[in-house]
Amino acid sequence: LAFSQSPKQDQLQPFLQDTLGQIETTDNGAQDNTANSLRAGPRGHVLLEDTTVRKKMIHFDRERQPERVVHALGHGAYGTFESSGDWSNITSACWLQNNVTSDVFVRFSVVVAGMGGSEVGRDTHGFATKIYSQCGNQDLVGNHLPSFFINDGALFPDLVHAVKAEADKGFPTGGTAHTTAYDFFTQRPEGSYQLMNVLSDLGIPRDVRHIAGAGVHTYRFINDAGESTLFKWYWQPQLGLRSLVYDEATKIAGKNNNFQRVDLFNSIAAGLFPKWDLLIQLFPDDGTYMFKGIDLLDPTKVVPNELNKPLKFGTMTLNRNPTNFFSEPESIAFAPSNVVRGVTFVPDALLQWRLMSYDDTHTHRLGSPNNYLLPVNRPVTPVNNNFRDGYMQPEIYVGASTSSPDGIGGVIGANAASTLDYGNETINGAIGRYNVISDDFTQATSFWNSLDPYAQQHTVDAYRFELGNVANSTVVSTYINEILNSIDNCLARRVAFGVGAPLPTISKSNKSIPVYPSEFKLANQGKL
Ligand code: HEM
């Protein structure tokens, strides 16, 4: 197969519809005017026979597809990813081999806000990349912060219900901060490190050219010899990181909800192409999923750079705005389950549910299991299988065979061992519903201790704002006494003082916890 410089752009070309300067038609291709209703006289009733305008209206009535259940507010752009070397000793993934450049699409998003909300809100922000590689689509679906709130996907619907609008009111008490959210955070202390990240200066990124990305979970590389190496991935913006303080964010949001997409669109249109380095932390796969005392299966925790220096595996450049907002950023479907030969998974109970949830939601949001055939979602490699029929199936398959294996010349089964390979992983355990054992506070304390005094003050202000808007005083005092006081007594007292709650006296925190300054710098390279 011969590919040009941009296989994805070539693939999209035949799908482009240029109606500029064309004579208007109905949807059966006949010429007609849809600006004037068909009426019984110039001042008479509109006729049922106006099938053309009737179809126009029917189409309009159905223009919206459901917004994403999370990360609804987003935008994105095309670009390229260039591997910075030959990583074949670690992974068979074709997009990480020597001199390989692949097309990409990146969608940046905000988790909680719905469409039409503010892009500069305090929240976890999404950073999802689809790499259209020559061995299939590789999706890297991450966030801008390197950890998460929970470590079992069974809790994800509860987390999302707790942080979105409250069920009775349809809005969160106190704007962004609310009772159900802090009740949840009180019940689930494993998220205290992630929440502190969100409430720190990292929680309000200025724009997406200065935003980091992180895969959060540990994944697995497999090389051609079947050897397994564990890894975590990060996007490091070459422009450095920039955040907003809360007052700046509220002013910007008041003027322009779409501040971040305007910034990216205008930058790309002006030829200022933002770049990110793909940084990877590698861990030996010794079967324990532990690294220097840190549980690699626990996505609520990170491995600080001081303990494992990330290596640069490549660079991504965003250089082309989408042609159509609905067809591209809105209709793209990312899934952590989209991996190519050389990348597989680990038994992290959050990741494992993500492997199911995205494919499932796409059939709902985009209306059909055929969503992978939409132009923006199609791999640049051929899709040959017997996933057939269903709503809006656009392909015209040739031949009688619809099963595999078959004896009449249909698709030929690929070598199963060469695709989803897990190295030497063996599973041996008693079936049951288990709590994920988590060290709830050490990394939060370490993070707090690594902040400069001004950054600590911003974080205290954010806790005060949030807890000051929680309507239930038991939730406020429990959060301060059980969570904040377990992180740091001084932090707990400062927050309690600000919201008029009793000051906690006995600290549960351990002051001998090491400080990892680069943990903060990883996502905060520039000046704020
Ligand atoms: C979007 C589920 C955890 C990053 C979504 C969507 C669902 C979902 C249903 C909407 C997808 C769509 O409509 O196309 C889950 C579940 C999780 C989980 C069940 C936990 C079990 C995470 C984590 C991260 C993450 C830990 C980051 C590492 C994203 C991103 C998007 C997204 C970036 C937006 C993708 C886009 O731009 O289209 N998630 N999620 N999610 N999720 Fe998750």
UniProtKB/TrEMBL annotation:
Domain of life: Eukaryota
EC primary class: oxidoreductase
Active-site residues per Swiss-Prot or TrEMBL entry: H71, N143
Substrates-to-products reaction catalysed: 2 H2O2 = O2 + 2 H2O
GO function term, MF aspect, one: catalase activity
GO BP term, pick one: hydrogen peroxide catabolic process
Keyword vocabulary terms for this entry: Heme, Hydrogen peroxide, Iron, Metal-binding, Oxidoreductase, Peroxidase, Signal
EC number: 1.11.1.6
UniProt-annotated binding residues for heme: Y358
Function: Occurs in almost all aerobically respiring organisms and serves to protect cells from the toxic effects of hydrogen peroxide.
Protein name according to UniProt: Catalase
Organism expressing this protein natively: Oidiodendron maius (strain Zn)
Lineage: Eukaryota, Fungi, Dikarya, Ascomycota, Pezizomycotina
Range within the parent protein: 16 to 543 of 695
